[in-house]
Design brief:
The chain is 18% helix and 36% strand. It is built from two helices and ten strands, in the order βββαββββαβββ. Bound molecules: iron/sulfur cluster.
């Protein structure tokens, strides 16, 4: 299997060409070894992160933005989005608050990225 993708680890954005044959992977186009690690991960267990928003009850705004503090397995993106969509948090919410620790046992925390104070 031959795949091409862009390494997103640093702003260089190297265009990686990956040849995967059974258990062996060869990578070209990388300017440093981190590109090989990234290519291996993309082939075996690609990871992504999420930035979204949650509903806030009793706040001066109805939603607060949130994000995962680290990338998670791509297969968990939709299940985690389902959790986020169903979530209501009580105001106040502050930047950096952990909304859900280790969401769906992914190893990532869902954290707030916006302040929403309680309604008076
Ligand atoms: S291969 Fe290395 S230099 Fe190229 S984008 Fe990835 S991390 Fe940056």
């Amino acid at each position: 299997m031959r795949k091409c993708f862009t390494c997103v680890i640093c702003p260089n954005g190297c265009r990686l060409e990956v040849e995967a044959d059974g258990g062996t992977i060869s990578v070209t186009g990388n300017l440093c070894p981190r590109g090989v690690e990234y290519a291996n991960e993309e082939i075996t267990d690609p990871k992504r992160t999420i930035a979204s928003s949650v509903l806030v009850d009793g706040g001066v705004m109805e939603i607060a933005s949130v994000r995962l503090d680290k990338a998670v397995s791509k297969s968990l993106i939709f299940p985690i989005m389902d959790v986020i969509k169903a979530l209501h948090v009580a105001a106040p919410v502050h930047i950096g608050d952990v909304i859900i620790h280790d969401i769906l046992s992914s190893g990532a925390d869902l954290i707030a990225t916006r302040n929403v104070e309680a309604r008076q």
